[in-house]
Specification:
The chain is an alpha/beta fold and about 325 residues long. It has two domains: about 5-100 and about 295-310, Rossmann fold; about 105-285, Rossmann fold. It has helices spanning about 10-20, 35-45, 60-65, 85-90, 105-120, 120-130, 160-170, 185-190, 200-205, 225-230, 245-255, 275-280, 295-310, and strands at about 5, 25, 50-55, 75, 95, 150-155, 175-180, 195, 205-210, 235-240, 260-265, 285. Helix 1 packs parallel to helix 13 (about 295-310) and helix 5 (about 105-120) packs across helix 7 (about 160-170). The two termini are about 30 Å apart. The structure holds glyoxylic acid. Glyoxylic acid binds near residues 78 and 103. Glyoxylic acid binds near residues 55, 78, 80 and 103.
Length: about 325
């Protein structure tokens, strides 16, 4: 009977699918991230055939050494997979899968939640009101900025970036600029979007939203020099991966008003956050929850389980990462 290890409690739907197949499913009972040593201890000599893991689990060669040769698949319950050494897995004949598609809309919604919240000063206004400072309507109180008719620069036109563009154009009549390694003329026609260089995007956008995966080439893609290109009245939104932005440089830029604000769901050294960011009113932070709705996390759990079942039934998993 195949044995599966799940590194943390996840939505039940995926666990049930695996159990319904008759697999032996072991779930780490503690609702916390396992350290590397704890993960290795949990896997060693246990003969697991599949690992169901999360973006907080670093699956490198050392962890793979503890798998044993029967391990067929590492299924990440995330669309991003920078936590897994995919090349090393391939060398060892281990399949790696992720969960794209099911979270696209939810992450796009969270991106807009952040964009609207920073532009309309929602968190500042909430704090202000709770502190008892609301003594009456005032014409100059907490003025923010509109999204409508503004220019949104999308960095990375994958599924999520495209969905954000959809909401921007169809919902808010924004103008969309985009930068990606690939140009997409069909997308340009559909949304009236304009393909530009990263520098031009930063110079011309009122809102910049990051949607690239974390790769060696995208680490610190947005550094001090790039932030300086942005308009003083612009906002930076990040729902992709923290290290794409040089967080110390961003904190400085926000403190000295090089840009107007930032709304971040991900952090360079998460769960740690550059302390200076947390002192600023022109910053909104959420704890890496862009895909965190009941509906979507359940679908992610089901998709990770589906990938495991496919691999264990000797099929190519739907979301296999290596070709
Ligand atoms: C979340 O960040 C994911 O990659 O799914």
């Amino acid at each position: 009977m195949p044995k599966i290890y799940i590194t943390r409690i996840v939505p039940e739907a995926g666990i049930k699918m695996l159990k319904d197949k008759g697999y032996e499913v072991v779930v780490n009972p503690e609702d916390k991230v396992l350290t590397k040593e704890e993960l290795i201890m949990a896997l060693k000599n246990q003969n697991y055939n599949a690992l169901f893991c999360l973006l907080t689990d670093k699956i490198d060669a050392e962890v793979m050494d503890s798998f044993g040769p029967q391990l067929k698949v590492v299924a990440n319950m995330a669309v991003g997979f920078d936590n897994i050494d995919v090349i090393e897995a391939k060398k060892r004949g281990i399949m790696v899968t992720n969960t794209p598609g099911v979270l696209t809309n939810t992450v796009a919604e969270h991106t807009f939640s952040l964009m609207l919240s920073i532009a309309h000063r929602i968190t500042e206004a909430d704090k202000f009101t709770r502190a008892g400072n609301y003594i009456g309507w005032a014409p100059m109180l907490l003025l923010g900025n509109d999204l409508s008719s503004k220019t949104l620069g999308i960095v990375g036109l994958g599924r999520i970036g495209s969905r954000v563009a959809h909401h921007a154009v169809k919902g808010f009549e924004m103008k969309v600029l985009y930068y990606d390694v690939n140009r997409n003329e069909e997308f340009e026609k559909e949304f009236g979007a304009v393909y530009v260089s990263l520098d031009d995007l930063l110079k011309e956008s009122d809102f910049v939203s990051i949607h690239v995966p974390l790769l060696p080439a995208t680490r610190h893609l947005i550094n001090a020099e790039k932030i300086k290109l942005m308009k003083p009245a612009s906002y930076l939104i990040n729902t992709s991966r923290g290290p794409i932005i040089d967080e110390a440089a961003l904190a400085m830029a926000l403190a000295d008003k090089t840009i107007k604000g930032a709304a971040l769901d991900v952090f360079e050294f998460e769960p740690k956050i550059t302390p200076e960011l947390l002192l600023l009113d022109n910053v909104i932070v959420t704890p890496h929850i862009a895909s965190a709705t009941e509906e979507t996390r359940s679908k992610m759990s089901v998709l990770a389980a589906t990938n495991i079942i496919e691999a264990l039934e000797d099929k190519i998993p739907s979301n296999m990462l290596q070709n």
